[in-house]
Amino acid sequence: MNSSLRTAPVESTSDSHRDRLSDVKRVVVKVGSSTISRGFELNDGALDRLVDDLARVKRSGKEVILVTSGAIAAGVGTLGLSSRPRTIPGLQAAAAVGQSRLMHAYEDRFQEYGEMAAMILLTQEDFNNRKRYIHITNTLNTLLQLGTVPIINENDTVAVEEIKVGDNDTLSAHVTNLADADLLVILSDQTGFFTADPRKHSHSQFVDVVPVITEDIRKAAGRAGSQGGTGGMITKVQAAEIVTGSGEMMVLADGKERDVVSRILSGENIGTLFLPQTQKSSRKRWIAYSRPPKGRLLVDNGARNALVDRGKSLLASGVRGVEGEFEYGDTVSCLDENRDEFGRGLVNYNTEDIAKIIGKRTSEIERILGARYYDEVIHRDNLVLMEQT
Ligand code: GLU
Hints:
By secondary structure, the protein is of the alpha/beta class. The protein has 16 helices and 17 strands. Bound molecules: glutamic acid (GLU).
């Protein structure tokens, strides 16, 4: 194991970082099925405790958005099925039954505290399309201004594999970006992030603060998969990459801890805190994280330096290779000569056209393609530099 991971827990006593948590104004809380359901039943006690905690956070003047799983689990139980359906329509049917039950469970409980719940169901398509993304942002902001608690899940009833976010850890990170929240709290069946799965490796160490997500952290997460949730530890670290890469904080903590969100927000030392990197604007967050890149451009070192150090656009002359299948306007990754990703951007030409103009001067584009639609392969304004670790 590399020293950056080994020293992470002791390097930063988290107190100074945790002070910042009390300044949070808008928090997204993600709760997994393992926390709020038992088998195929909703766990009433766990829901009572969660809503009590969130209502307290709300009363303290903070805005709260809840991303919750549990629709499929609740649907399976309500329908009296003995196991999780194996077919897509079966899962979608279970989600249709379970989602309304899940929502009802929250609505009733929030009402007891005088709070109003509002439901939003999303799929990956809502994040792919910039206009739709902005519409949802506006709706979410309005719901918060009206004092409601937005409750979000994937729209499992309509979402098939191709249009799915796929797991609620990633969904909650997208929602944190969309809502421009200052903190994501992921509640799961683990007390936080460990250097290896604590249930399998006795030497594993709890990590109090992750200053930056390195390759070692990603590898440790790959090893520390949880049985409980859809995504295990790797999707939690990916969520942390999205949130911290956008410039916000994330805490991963045990959903069974009493008043866990209130205590995190008061700066108490619970769970693992992932520290924010450089702040990104809403549009740049959308480019970098809201939809998976459709392809890769291999960029030579000279062009890479012009992009990273001198704020230039990417021209065809700096492109050495092209991979994937993409169209004009899709998101692509920019890889350096070591194949490390250093940027993501909206591309001005499709795969076939780029393959034809690779390494060429801008003045040659018209002769080769019959038209010069753009001078740049990726314009500077549509390019986001990613933190390289
Ligand atoms: N959306 C799914 C559900 O409500 C859960 C997905 C997840 O837990 O990541 O059952």
